[in-house]
């Protein structure tokens, strides 16, 4: 091929228009007529299906999701367009990105081909575009082929789901083949065009290559190949458009809106049981019992799910064999929604959510760890839905038996352990001297230690809390406490759906907190941290112990002995400290500042941490999987070869230590609270050597 003179170019443009589908009838219809009929049909079907599908949203309850539009746009850019979450699964992520961006370029091409039916030659817009389009088509083609191979032969485990009877790979395969057919028909259309007429050098290299195979065909045959490829391409593109609202590829249209409308509240904050301005006591119905008790955004989540299975892949309940798969929940919800509003039939009523096949055991198996939400590339939310459903179950008295006792204890005694209210001081050092001063209203309280139930009533958790308070003592950081007034923060009561009980506990704590007016609140329990930050209404700084210990080490208020054995430790990120509370790095900095201590990370660390089984009320529930989550987590820690597994939550400590004992793993892997570990490496005699160090 060579470059053309301007006269030659003019002739070729004329000749190319002559070979355009706009100039030749097909199936007895002229190009413009056939295209118009196809478009009217396709857009008619598409509009109706879209109307019916999105009409579902009008049946959901209200939700406010249009606040902070600029922030939402930036968020959509990062998570919707750049899709940074895709790369947490690198192979699938790269494939998805190639197909996504390639498809955007090819969309322009498809639009031009629609116009070609009216205006001959309009699809030939220059060599640069032709190159880009070919590069995109080739990349998408190869990505689709590899994706097909992966689904058929490699079969990543997350594509199947033991709680979903239907296998969803079939639809994905059909769509991949559909895309390949679109690419193939376009390439054939162009190749036949080039075989009919020489193209300018460099234009459409793929078509140029393919046209070699068509040599030897007569002009009439080539024209028929060109026309049939063209119309096949347009039918496939319009057919795909019609199909989108019917299948899982609806996400092609809904992913960006769903990301834009995603929850922008802090991760640990729960949806309120009552709307703003409404009192909880005045609610006619608490929580979600039927499908359309959910709000419109919850329903949009159902419609948007891509079936990718990342949520279920990350779910600790699913991993350990419990009857809970977040993906299955969403797809069952979607199926129920479609059943109650079919495309071509009349709308049905408001079905009970259990008709979807989702089980009560599944509902109660969720630890609210948030791993599913962290993994979902289209920001589908779970915890709020589950808590709303639990609220309804609580309201109608459908409470799992093993939860009834701890809930009663919370109500009567203010702690889930059923212990009588404390009389003796819970935080004494080895000389029986209190490590915290009793906070008194009207006196300056300074920083206040909020212990929460575990540290007050559970002996092992109390030891860990005492270790922290000893560190505070060594660092000369005075802390007050209202241990005799404290009741449980109510964090888990709320997440198990007992909103009324939570509000009662919160109000009791808030009344003494308000009268004491501390500068800040310090906690050792991440559930307490989350409750005080997001469930309570007073505006107080709340810190977790690890943040302070890291600071004390940095400032030299705690000095660590160099004469210790070298040790490798791993760290288990508690869900409500890390994923929910965003506290990851202070712990890492703290550990790396300790001499002769090496941190070896588990594969699932930071926001990918694996829940140990959950806090507070979860302790009283028998897990429904074949294996306990804590045992699963211990196995991950063992793989690192660490000598010691550290954590920073009393419930993680209890769960993991108990799992180590019951699996006889103690001699292989010790479990300790991070404050206990730091205390074991601090040299008390050196602690205050630094001059000028004051509390
Ligand atoms: S919050 Fe955790 S336990 Fe619950 S469904 Fe999600 S991943 Fe599973
Ligand atoms: S909810 Fe999100 S992560 Fe789970 S399958 Fe659907 S799109 Fe994937």
Topology (SSEs and partners):
Blueprint: H1 6-18, H2 31-55, H3 69-81, H4 90-116, H5 127-154, H6 169-196, H7 205-214, H8 219-243, H9 251-260, H10 296-304, H11 310-314, H12 316-319, H13 326-340, H14 360-365, H15 371-375, H16 383-395, H17 401-413, E1 437-438, E2 447-450, H18 452-457, H19 459-474, E3 479-481, H20 491-495, H21 499-516, E4 520-523, H22 526-535, E5 542-544, H23 545-555, E6 567-571, H24 585-592, E7 597-599, H25 629-639, E8 644-647, H26 650-662, E9 670-673, H27 674-681
Parallel strand pairs: 1-3, 2-3, 2-4, 4-5, 6-7, 6-8, 8-9
If you had to describe this structure to a student in words, what would you say it looks like?
The structure is a single chain. With 695 residues, the chain is mostly helical. It is 51% helix and 5% strand. The model is unreliable at 688-695 (pLDDT under 50). It has 4 domains: 6-251, Fumarate Reductase Cytochrome B subunit; 280-395, Fumarate Reductase Iron-sulfur Protein, Chain B, domain 2 (Orthogonal Bundle); 413-550, no CATH class; 555-686, Rossmann fold, CATH 3.40.50. The protein has a 5-stranded parallel β-sheet. A 4-stranded parallel β-sheet has the order 7-6-8-9, sandwiched between helices. The chain has 27 helices and 9 strands. The protein binds iron/sulfur cluster (2 copies). One iron/sulfur cluster (SF4) binds next to helix 11 and helix 13. One iron/sulfur cluster (SF4) binds at residues 314-317, 324, 326, 366-372, 382-383, 611.
